[in-house]
Design a protein that fits this description.
45% of the residues lie in helices and 12% in strands. The protein has a four-stranded antiparallel β-sheet, sandwiched between helices. Helix 2 runs antiparallel to helix 6. The mean pLDDT is 95. It has 240 residues and is α+β, with helices and mostly antiparallel strands. Pfam families: Nitroreductase. Belongs to the flavin oxidoreductase frp family. One of its GO terms (molecular function) is oxidoreductase activity. This is NADPH-dependent oxidoreductase.
């Protein structure tokens, strides 16, 4: 099998890292270079990457996100932010309107660009024989994190990435049945039993950090409004 495909199919998230392992500058640069070469809508590259090496900053991140201590204990933490400031500067320079609040499309473009760059970083990390975990909880305290990293208007955090040398081996997590995810030519309905079967698969997988079934976890998560701060934050950032 192609080694790149094998690597992609073997992806695992790691949350425990060797605190004595230091990522070399060359390794970090390889990850950043690979990340920056990700696909981007119209080559707009509507994102930025903040390399967080300072221990004090990382301690503050863990204070805001106590369930993710790896943000401090990993070799490096990368914060991927959607960046529409750069094109706002272009609009000012060209003396034209910047009508990004007329539609949600600019938010989707910037979020997608940042996410693709993050995924390229994950692949590069694994190619170097290291491990990582994506951290979406940076959006839970989006105003504080924005202040912590001096984010200007038109910029917002999308996700973080803890990178390091894993100390605990992880198994490859089972994914949803293909029939529930992959459709040919048109969206196709499927038997809900497939989702219940996945509950059983995940129960047998028995990841220690999971305390609920897959369906219960998301039924509970989406039954109530969450992170209402995000809307007001995006308005303050001139994005809504």
């Amino acid at each position: 099998m192609n080694t790149i495909i094998e690597q992609l199919k073997s992806h695992r998230s790691y949350r425990h890292f060797d605190e004595n392992y230091t990522l070399t500058q060359n390794q970090l640069q390889e990850i950043l270079d690979a990340s920056r070469q990700a696909p981007s809508w119209m080559n707009g590259q509507a994102y930025s990457i903040i390399v967080v090496q300072n221990q004090a900053l990382r301690e503050k991140l863990v204070t805001l996100n106590p369930n993710n201590p790896h943000m401090l204990h990993s070799s490096v933490f990368l914060l991927f932010v959607a960046n529409l400031k750069r094109t706002q500067m272009v609009a000012v320079k060209n003396k034209v309107p910047y009508a990004i609040t007329d539609s949600l499309n600019p938010l989707l473009i910037a979020t997608t660009d940042a996410s693709l760059a993050l995924q390229n970083a994950v692949i590069a990390v694994e190619a170097l024989g290291l491990g990582s975990v994506v951290v979406g909880s940076v959006r839970n305290h989006i105003t504080e994190i924005s202040t912590l990293f001096n984010l200007p208007d038109y910029v917002y955090p999308v996700a973080g990435l803890s990178i390091g040398k894993p100390t605990v081996e992880m198994h490859i997590k089972p994914r949803l049945p293909e029939e529930t995810v992959v459709h040919y030519d048109t969206y196709q309905e499927y038997d809900y039993q497939l989702i219940e079967d996945y509950d059983q698969i995940m129960e047998e997988f028995a990841e220690a950090r999971e305390t609920k079934s897959w369906t219960k976890k998301f039924a509970d998560y989406y039954k109530e409004a969450r992170n209402s701060e995000l809307n007001s934050y995006l308005k303050e950032q001139k994005l809504l």
